[in-house]
Amino acid sequence: MDIIIPPLVLGSLGMILGVLIFLVGKYFGVEEDHRIDDIEKMLPKYNCGACGFAGCRDMAKALLTGSCRAESCKPIKKEDQENLNRYLDELLQGIPVTK
Amino acid sequence: MAELIAIAFAAFFVENVLLTQFLGICSFIGVGKKRSSSLGMGLAVVVVIILSSVVTWLIYNFVMVPLEIEFMKTIVFILVIAALVQMIEIIIKRFSPSLYKALGIYLPLITTNCAVLGVALTNVKEGYNFSQMIVYATAIPLGYLFVMYIYAIIREKMEFSPIPKAFQGIPIAMVLAAILALIFSRFGGLA
What we know:
The structure holds 2 protein chains of 2 kinds. Chain A is mostly helical. Chain A has 2 domains: 1-30; 34-91, Orthogonal Bundle (3-methyladenine DNA Glycosylase II, Chain A, domain 3), CATH 1.10.15. Chain A is built from 4 helices and no strands. Chain B contains 9 helices and no strands. Chain B is 76% helix and 0% strand. Chain B is globular and about 60 Å long. Chain B is mainly α. Chain B has one domain.
C-alpha cells in the first residue's frame, strides 16, 4: 500500500499544477500573431542563435516585419528556405518594410 | 524577533547565495553585464523565490509530512517551481511586456536556477516555521539582488578599463567574482 502513495501524490500534484497553468494561460494569456507560429514552424527550431536573434521565435518576429531574410538562418534546409521565402514574399507584398 | 533578524542577516551576508553558497551562478555571469537587466533579473528572482518557498513549505508540511513521503521533496519541489515559473511568465507577459522582453531568455532559466530549489530545500532542512521561512526566503534573494547589482556596476565600469586581451570578457568577470567572494567570505567571522 505504501508504494501507491508517492506516485499518487506526485500525479495529483502534477494534475493540479497542469490545470492551474491551463487556467492562468486561458485568463491571462496573450494572443500573439498566428503568422509568427507559421513562420516558426518553417524554421529549424534549434534556437542556435546563429542569426543574431534570441532564438527562432525572435527571428520569426523579425522575418514578419521584414527586417531580416530567411538567408540569415544558418542551419535551415534549402527547400525550407525556399518555402519560407515564398511565404514571406506573399505575406509582405506591398507592405512597406518597417523597422 | 532577534532570531528573525539573525536569520535575515546571516542569509543576506554570511550565507550569501551567490558568493558563499555559489548557487545561481549562471545568471550571475550572464545577466550581470548591465545594471538594468541585473535589477530586472534580481527582482524576478525575489518574486519567484518568495512564492516558491511559500508554496513548497506548505506542500511539505501539510501534505508530505503527514503522508511520510519526505524523501520525495526534491522531485516535488522541482515540479512546483517549474509550474510556478511558467505561470509567472504568462502573467508578466500579460501585464508588463517590457519586463518580459527585458528578462527574455532568463525567465525560463529561473526554472533551472538552483538558488530557487536551494532555498526551498534549506527551508525544510533547517525546519523553519512560517515566519522564519518568510524572512529567510526574502533575505536570500535580496542578497542575490544586492550582489548582482554591485557586480553589474563594477562590470559596467570595467568596460572602459584597459584589460589585457587574454582577460577580456568572461575571464575578468570570473576574477571579479572571485574577489567579491573573498570580501564576502570575511562576513563568515560574524556568524
